[in-house]
Amino acid sequence: MVPGDAAATTARAILDNEWLWRLGLAVHLLYLVPGLTMKVIVSGLFRSVDPTLARLALMFGVSAVTVEAVALVYLTVPLAVLENGGATLAALPDTPALVYLATRLFANGFGFSLLLFAGLCILVGVLILRSRLLPRAIGAMMVVAGLCYVVNTLALILSPAFFERINHAILLTILLAELSLALWLLLKGIVIPRS
């Protein structure tokens, strides 16, 4: 896919790599299951700290996964166009534009899912800060990561050019926060006090 160039993002190019396209869709769809599971586990870890915030974090996480799954439907448009040996391809007047539009709609839908995921990150960060079950720095980093997701999605909507300039720095900040949390939980774990 070439941003801004519908002709380069053609159904024919996807057809030439159909197996890779389908594999990418399948992997993304299958990723959502462990992704959802982790959201349930992480919010459950902090239920004893504040049950309401933990449930709200879970709701944001489930909503994010739902929106992401629905957005994946857009990536099936090129496959629908290519069904019947490409017969639909010849019947549609502007197939490259349609395929490009579908891929952009997916990107925007994924951005919306990240806005919801921001709620999960911020609330998990707040729960970490309140609980002291993990280092406060990780809690603060998760709040910052959530705010970065908000800025990232709003920039995508309001100013795509600004989004392109800040995207890498924001993603690096998010990676640092989420990786810190994941590594801490994996290597150190936490001991949840019995109620």
The geometry reads as elongated
Tally of domains = 1
Uncertain residue ranges: none
* Integer average pLDDT: 87
Beta strand count: 0
Structural class: mainly alpha
Biggest sheet: strands, sense, closure? Answer: none
Distance N to C terminus: 52 Å
Q: Helical region count?
A: 7
> Would you list the SSEs in sequence order as H and E?
HHHHHHH
Summarize the structure in words:
The chain has 195 residues and is mainly alpha-helical. The protein has one domain (11-186). The chain has helices at residues 11-16, 18-45, 51-72, 77-91, 95-131, 136-158, 160-187. The radius of gyration is 20 Å and the shape is elongated. The mean pLDDT is 87.
Can you give me a brief rundown of this structure?
Helices cover 82% and strands 0% of the residues.
Keywords for this entry:
195 residues; mainly alpha; 7 helices; elongated
Layout: helices, strands, pairs:
Layout: H1 11-16, H2 18-45, H3 51-72, H4 77-91, H5 95-131, H6 136-158, H7 160-187
